[in-house]
Amino acid sequence: MKESINWDLIGRYMTGEISDEDRTVFKSWIESDPENQKIIGDLNEIWNEPGIEPPACNVDRMKNEILVKAGIRMENRQKTRFLPMLQNLRTQVVLRYAAAFLVFIMSAYFAADQFIFNGQSEYENLNNVVVANTLQDKITLPDGSIAILDAGTEFSYPREFAPDKREVFLQGEAFFEVVPGKDRPFLVNAGSAHIKVLGTKFNVRAWNITESVEVVVSEGNVLLRSQGDNGDNSVVIYKDQKSVIKSDSDPTVPVTVDPEMYTSWINNTRKFNNTRLKEVIDQLERWYDLKFDFKNKKLLSVNITIQIQKEEPVRDYIDLISSIINVKYEISDETVTFK
What are phi and psi of 166, to 5 degrees? Predict the structure, then answer.
């Protein structure tokens, strides 16, 4: 039986008010059905359309904004700009989802007076992006900087950067190409890490499940510190260097690495060198939209060396892992079980 759509959960995601627990449920729901991925894609396309003013805190204004975004209500000042967009969207599908979404808006927020995007009180117009499993996304930010997002990544950024800073929020993995801006530092908030750059190319790996943030610099340099730290324990990471923050600890001393090992995923190749099997499995789940179950959980701590190419059949890698750990497996309902 197909799982029903939880519009209340979708609404909390769209407005940035989703808790960590609900975020996990939300991601599972997205990954459970390609149709769910399509729903979120259509809603994101409406919600993040440039030129539409961000929702106001007043509930009536908020409901009106959703109607405008869905193309159901046209304010005079927006008709000229919005009609071409509707012609380019899959209008029937969008209206279908938007109508149901409005039911949520009117019920979940009818008694509310205010709301905050992504828990950040200074931002009321964040774009929220969730990349579905198997996919990759490339975002051009308001200043022209580029963010390439891996499958399973969640990313938020303002529709317009502030005059004194360019701040974004990441959970997952992203490669950044930052446009130089001496008077406007580029700030990445990723889990327990705070990253500050002026103009450079670097990779950030910040998955919640790993409880660590890893930063690798390909060009230029970045300043890395723990969230809440006043800067006394920050480190500068230069080209071809890596530093890691685990939980709320201080960043490690930067070490020299081959950036290609950490950025090859941009070209659909992931290289793992003496890496915990758990990290490899997590990548396979995101890239191939599968679930893995290990009866012996200790196997996930085994270190392996492997290179994954996304265009190759996943069965090749399952067979290879089975051979490495010497454990048989079976596949049922898109779940791979190692016995």
Answer: -125, 100
